[in-house]
C-alpha cells in the first residue's frame, strides 16, 4: 500500500471572478475525503483590487468548511500564468512538505472529478514522475477555442513530445 501523500494544487486565476465560484466549491468538496491530503491554493495574478477582494471572500466562505483551501496568494501585478503557478508552488512548498505539486485552470475546463482522478493516479506513480493532462477533441466532445489557441497548443504539444 502506498503511504498517504501531501499534494499542493495551485489554481492560477486572472479575472476569474465569474467562473471560479462555479468550479471551486465542487473541486474542494471532492478533495475532503481523500486518502491523500490535497491543499488548494488560488493565486490571483494581479486581477485588481475588486477581483482580489472577491477571490478572498470566496475562499474564506469555502475554507470555513474545508481547511484544505489555503488563503489565496494575491500578486500585485499580472505576471502571467506560469509565473502565478511558480509563485504558488514556491510560496506554499517553502512552508509545507509536499510530495507532489500540481496545477489546474480556474475556468473549470477540466472538471473537478477529472482533477480528482488525475491526483489519485499521480499519487500511485513513482516520485519524480510527471503527469500531464490535456483536452483532446474526441468523438462526441466539443472543445471551443480560437484557431490561434489551437495552433499554439499543437506547437507546444509537439515541442513537449519531441523533448
Write structural notes for this entry.
- By secondary structure, the chain is an alpha/beta fold.
- It contains 5 helices and 4 strands.
- It has helices spanning 20-31, 49-63, 81-95, 112-122, 147-162, and strands at residues 6-13, 37-45, 73-75, 100-103.
- The protein has a 4-stranded parallel sheet, with helices on both faces.
- Helix 1 links the parallel strand 1 (6-13) and strand 2 (37-45).
- Helix 1 (20-31) packs across helix 4 (112-122).
- It is globular.
- The mean pLDDT is 85.
Sheet of most strands: 4 strands, parallel
- Beta-strand residue percentage: 5-15%
The quaternary structure here is single chain
| Radius of gyration of CA atoms, rounded to a whole number | 16 Å
Helix content: 40-55%
Which parts are unreliable, with pLDDT below 50 for 5 consecutive residues or more? Answer: none
What is the overall pLDDT average? 85
> What structural class results from the helix and strand content?
alpha/beta
Top keywords for this entry?
5 helices; four-stranded parallel β-sheet; alpha/beta; 163 residues; single chain
Amino acid at each position: 500500500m502506498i503511504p498517504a501523500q501531501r499534494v499542493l494544487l495551485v489554481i492560477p486565476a486572472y479575472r476569474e471572478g465569474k467562473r471560479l465560484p462555479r468550479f471551486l466549491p465542487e473541486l474542494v468538496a471532492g478533495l475532503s475525503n481523500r486518502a491523500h491530503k490535497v491543499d488548494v491554493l488560488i493565486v490571483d495574478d494581479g486581477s485588481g483590487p475588486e477581483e482580489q477582494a472577491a477571490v478572498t471572500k470566496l475562499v474564506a466562505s469555502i475554507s470555513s468548511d474545508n481547511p484544505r483551501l489555503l488563503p489565496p496568494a494575491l500578486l500585485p501585478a499580472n505576471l502571467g500564468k506560469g509565473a502565478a503557478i511558480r509563485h504558488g508552488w514556491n510560496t506554499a512548498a517553502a512552508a509545507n512538505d509536499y510530495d507532489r505539486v500540481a496545477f489546474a485552470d480556474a475556468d473549470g475546463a477540466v472538471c473537478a472529478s477529472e482533477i480528482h482522478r488525475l491526483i489519485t493516479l499521480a499519487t500511485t506513480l513513482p516520485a519524480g514522475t510527471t503527469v500531464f493532462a490535456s483536452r483532446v477533441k474526441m468523438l462526441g466532445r466539443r472543445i471551443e477555442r480560437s484557431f490561434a489557441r489551437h495552433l499554439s497548443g499543437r506547437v507546444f504539444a509537439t515541442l513537449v513530445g519531441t523533448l
